[in-house]
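User: Here's a structure from my thesis project, written as structure tokens. My advisor, Dr. K., wants to see whether a designed sequence matches the one we expressed. Can you design one independently, without my sequence as a hint?
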């Protein structure tokens, strides 16, 4: 595709070309349960402060995507109050201080409808934006995301959120196998493990972009600004 056919972002391993009309901003699991104390992330022994650096650049990206008229989709990982959609293998996993469904300071851990399950105030969805509630790490497993994207004519995703090597990676791999082109914004995804952040991003762009492209948010923002200039 020639640059004139779309908006171009300098990216690793090669420029990412997209049309804002057929591209969605996907914001993965920016929930209190992952980025604030007392939630699922902290019960697993993680320092949630490591994820908070994502919030400021992601706010700017969200504002720019809204201004450009792009579709915006938010996801939330969590389960029904009766845990009927939580496989026992997931429930038993690890050695958390509080298991999924247990009462925590922000409500029951990772349960839909609880305060901790919802998206942080800084990135609150607008009423016309899609929210996908997902029981797994991937955003496609057990959800109608694929059908919604196809119905809206979306072929590319700008992927953000947490955590890089878990829900972001799983989602990008699922999306790639379904034919979507994914640009991951390096400073708008976060991990509890700096090493996994670095390697997780490298894995996406390696081998000629084996399942996606990677670029900083500044490159994405600049591409939208340039698009608005008269040619
Ligand atoms: N624990 C961890 O790193 N992540 C998750 O469990 N879910 C998401 O990544 N959203």
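Assistant: Designed independently from the structure alone:
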């Amino acid at each position: 595709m020639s640059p004139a056919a779309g908006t171009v972002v300098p990216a690793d391993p090669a420029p990412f070309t997209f049309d804002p009309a057929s591209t969605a901003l996907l914001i993965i699991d920016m929930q209190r349960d992952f980025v604030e104390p007392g939630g699922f992330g902290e019960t697993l022994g993680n320092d949630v402060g490591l994820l908070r650096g994502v919030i400021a650049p992601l706010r700017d990206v969200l504002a720019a995507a809204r201004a450009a008229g792009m579709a915006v989709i938010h996801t939330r990982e969590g389960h029904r109050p009766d845990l009927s959609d939580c496989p026992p293998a997931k429930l038993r996993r690890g050695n958390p201080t509080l298991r999924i469904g247990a009462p925590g300071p922000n409500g029951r851990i990772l349960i839909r409808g609880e305060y901790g399950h919802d998206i942080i105030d800084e990135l609150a969805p607008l009423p016309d934006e899609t929210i996908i509630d997902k029981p797994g790490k991937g955003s496609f497993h057990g959800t109608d995301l694929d059908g919604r994207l196809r119905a809206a004519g979306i072929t590319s995703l700008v992927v953000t959120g947490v955590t890089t090597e878990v829900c972001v990676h799983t989602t990008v791999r699922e999306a790639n196998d379904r034919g979507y082109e994914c640009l991951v914004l390096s400073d708008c995804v976060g991990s509890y493990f700096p090493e996994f952040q670095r390697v997780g991003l490298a894995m996406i762009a390696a081998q000629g972009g084996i399942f996606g492209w990677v670029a900083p948010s500044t490159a994405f923002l600049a591409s939208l600004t340039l698009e608005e200039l008269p040619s």
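When you compare it with your expressed construct, this may help: The radius of gyration is 17 Å.
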